[in-house]
């Protein structure tokens, strides 16, 4: 279980760093230099951004954590050796595919958000 939590922590830190770099690039591209003089506002922007990233990542990695718990439960049940091997392989395959999908979505939306704002000068609006 320690390995699962370490994976979640490492990928969360990587995603938070990626999103922060995206914010820095957007700040340098779109915010006028006159507004950057307000250091408290800029710090608050980054702080709230990290809080929103953590909120998103906690929801994104919940199935990953649930799969790890189920793998841990099924690995302790000794019905037959195939069940133990299957649960470990299932966790490895599921976690690999899930991380790839989440990574592609996060990187894709980071690019889309940047270029959408560059073209339309507004953020994504769902409604």
From TrEMBL:
This is LTA synthase family protein. It comes from Campylobacter jejuni. The keyword Membrane applies. Keywords: Membrane, Transmembrane, Transmembrane helix. The chain crosses the membrane at residues 5-25, 54-77, 89-112. It comes from the Bacteria.
């Amino acid at each position: 279980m320690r390995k699962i939590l370490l994976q979640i922590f490492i990928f969360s830190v990587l995603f938070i760093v990626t999103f922060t770099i995206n914010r820095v690039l957007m700040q340098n591209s779109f915010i006028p230099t006159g507004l950057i003089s307000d250091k408290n506002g800029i710090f608050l922007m980054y702080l709230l951004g990290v809080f929103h990233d953590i909120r998103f990542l906690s929801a994104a990695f919940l199935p990953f954590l649930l799969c790890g718990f189920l793998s841990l439960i099924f690995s302790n049940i000794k019905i037959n050796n195939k069940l133990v091997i299957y649960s470990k392989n299932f966790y490895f395959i599921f976690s690999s595919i899930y991380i790839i999908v989440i990574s592609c979505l996060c990187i894709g939306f980071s690019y889309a958000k940047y270029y959408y704002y560059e073209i339309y000068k507004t953020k994504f609006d769902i409604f």
